[in-house]
Design brief:
The complex is a heterodimer. Helices cover 33% and strands 28% of the residues of chain A. By secondary structure, chain A is of the alpha/beta class. Chain A is globular. The chains are: A alpha/beta, B mainly alpha. Chain A binds chain B through residues 46, 49-51, 70-72, 74-76, 78-80, 82, 85, 87-92, 95-96, 99-100, 102-103, 105, 107, 133, 135, 151, 155, and chain B through 2-4, 82, 85, 213, 216, 219-220, 222-224, 226-227, 229-235, 272, 276-278.
Chain lengths: 254, 333
């Protein structure tokens, strides 16, 4: 599904947080959104989903403006993994992930065997098969984060947005989860837009990078080209050294 | 189904209807004026039966009302707690009870008696006050077409205090009617007849049906508004409908019985603890549990100090409060 962001602007108290951003993440690819804290990455994702209403510009799916779409239609096309949030009610992991099937179910329809199959498969994908019946209130931060990824995968949408999906994960699960996301993109042609903080993980798992600063996209392109020490040093205000290993750039703070 | 709760769900679904039947029988057979044996003879039409006036005109509508009001308050509490993700939320949270209280107080102070439909003016004024206060809260907390949970709750508290102050002021100015007003604000089923039952029935049905229709949406709303939105819930419309229907149901229930507290706060917590957070099962089981609790409390209210009648709101608070504290200490809610 063709996703485009056109000249998107969102202001908070008259101060532009996202300022004229245009992006065209490609189908079948992971586009990582990088940038320092407060660059407007999360706000950009929330404007795309319609949780925030942009003051100018729009996000479109196949040319159709997303804010005109009913929530249910939208949820069949776009899924979001939010930044780690707290869950207070004692639903199990399986029940929580099954909520991803909501946009596909009739009001009184119970989840079908097919829905359960999809849910169990994505739970397996994020490595929580043994946790199906565990209450979400009894999970660690990292386990909870993987539940949120599984719920979004369970929505089975052609567009997937992720907001720092691996911030609470250990290094192995970071690789597993981002690997699963990249497989989604490549095998099913899903358009993935993923906010990440770790530049080296972005270089390894994203096909393309977009770097934001002060609400604007300041660089966009392939990892080898965007992860330029001079550019990154200026964006983050931190001098970095670049090493190339195995055909991938690795940036180290000096 | 959630394996933690599957056994309890099975037991609850089987046991609660039986408990309800037992509580209804107990309520019908006990009380002053006719002994259990006499009442039983009347029901079964055996020799020695009386004309059944007490049983069919007084006790039976009262039992029906207890079931309806208990179920409605419980179900409305479930909806409010799920929607606001707030353990303190109850059916009265948006100012319904304060508004209803003010309406009833005005009617009592003005000495209005019968109105239309054979209903007391107090009932109609209470309903208008309850519905009006929610409308006011809704209008006050709407900003730029959007509705925030926090401003709803705060507006509810502010409007509630304003109306309570009005009630107290009118009470102060009408010394002679103070007893009547206080009795109403404590809640009682003592003035209930079939007319009140039929007046209340549609409102209670509205509340219960709304809870069943929106059960799955409530599951998602309980995950947070933005999550619900991203999973495809039309959050704005759903929330407005739930609020509106809950308010109508609560105002209907309160208008006939006065303000009965704690049922709508405690029953949802207890049933969530027993049966899990899935509203599709929580709603019907809470309704049953609320009905059973209300029947028991009301029967105690009229038998404990017979022939004197204790306002049932006092009993629900006196039994509910300590029980709730015990639960709180036993396990984190």
């Amino acid at each position: 599904m063709k996703t485009t962001v056109e000249n998107l602007t969102y202001s908070y108290n008259g101060h532009p947080v996202v300022n004229g951003v245009s992006l065209s993440p490609r189908e079948g690819e992971v586009t990582a959104v990088l940038g320092p804290n407060g660059a407007g990455k999360t706000t950009l994702l929330r404007c795309i989903t319609g949780a925030l209403r942009p003051v100018r510009g729009a996000a479109r799916l196949d040319g159709q403006p997303m804010d005109a779409m009913p929530p249910r239609e939208k949820a069949r096309r776009v899924a979001l993994v939010p930044q780690a949030s707290n869950l207070e009610f004692r639903f199990t992991v399986l029940e929580t992930v099954l909520m991803g099937r909501y946009p596909w179910l009739g009001r009184f329809a119970a989840e079908s065997a097919r829905d359960h199959e999809i849910a169990r498969q994505v739970i397996d994908e994020v490595g929580l098969a043994a946790f199906c019946d565990r209450s979400v209130t009894a999970l660690s931060g990292g386990e909870l984060q993987r539940v949120l990824v599984a719920r979004a995968l369970c929505q089975d949408t052609p567009v997937l947005l992720l907001d720092e999906p691996v911030s609470h994960l250990d290094i192995r699960h970071q690789v597993d989860i981002l690997g699963a996301v990249r497989r989604r993109a490549e095998e099913r042609g899903v358009t993935v837009l993923c906010v990440l903080h770790d530049l080296n993980l972005a270089a390894r798992f994203a096909h393309r990078l977009a770097v934001m600063k002060d609400g604007r996209v300041v660089a966009e392109g392939a990892p080898g080209q965007v992860l330029d020490p001079a550019l990154i040093g200026e964006v983050y205000g931190l001098p970095v050294t670049r090493i190339d290993a195995g055909g991938r750039p690795i940036l180290i703070p000096e | 189904m959630n394996p933690h709760f599957s056994r309890r769900l099975a037991i609850g679904s089987a046991l609660l209807p039986l408990l309800l039947a037992a509580a209804a029988c107990w309520a019908l057979l006990s009380g002053s004026g006719a002994s259990a044996a006499e009442s039983l003879r009347t029901i079964l039409g055996l020799p020695g039966a009386d004309d059944g006036l007490l049983l069919f005109r007084i006790r039976m509508p009262r039992v029906a009302m207890g079931i309806m009001v208990g179920a409605t308050l419980a179900v409305c509490g479930v909806m409010m707690q799920g929607m606001f993700r707030n353990p303190l939320a109850d059916p009265h949270i948006l100012g319904v009870s304060s508004g209803a209280g003010l309406g009833a107080t005005i009617a009592i102070a003005l000495g209005l008696g019968r109105a239309t439909l054979g209903l007391g003016a107090v009932t109609l004024f209470a309903f208008a006050g309850g519905a009006g206060s929610v409308a006011l809260v809704y209008l006050l907390s709407r900003r730029a077409g959007r509705l925030s949970t926090t401003s709803l709750l705060l507006a509810g508290i502010a409007v509630g205090s304003l109306f309570s102050a009005g009630t107290t002021l009118i009470m102060r100015l009408n010394h002679d009617k103070m007893d009547h007003i206080i009795f109403w604000t404590m809640g009682s089923l003592s003035t209930v007849g079939w007319k009140q039952v039929f007046w209340c029935l549609p409102f209670c049905l509205i509340g219960s049906l709304a809870a069943l229709i929106f059960a799955r949406d409530l599951n998602l709303l309980s995950q947070g508004e933005e999550t619900a939105l991203h999973l495809g819930v039309n959050v704005g419309r759903t929330r407005m409908l739930i609020m509106l229907l809950t308010a109508i149901a609560t105002a209907g229930a309160v208008s006939a019985t006065g303000v009965i507290g704690f049922v709508g706060l405690i029953i949802p917590h207890v049933s969530r603890m027993l049966f899990g957070p899935d509203h599709r099962r929580l709603v019907p089981l809470s309704a049953l549990m609320g009905a059973v609790f209300m029947l028991i409390m009301d029967t105690l209210a009229r038998t404990l100090a017979a022939p004197l009648e204790i306002p049932v709101g006092i009993l629900t608070a006196m039994c509910g409060g300590p029980f709730f504290l015990w639960l709180l200490r036993r396990s984190a809610l």
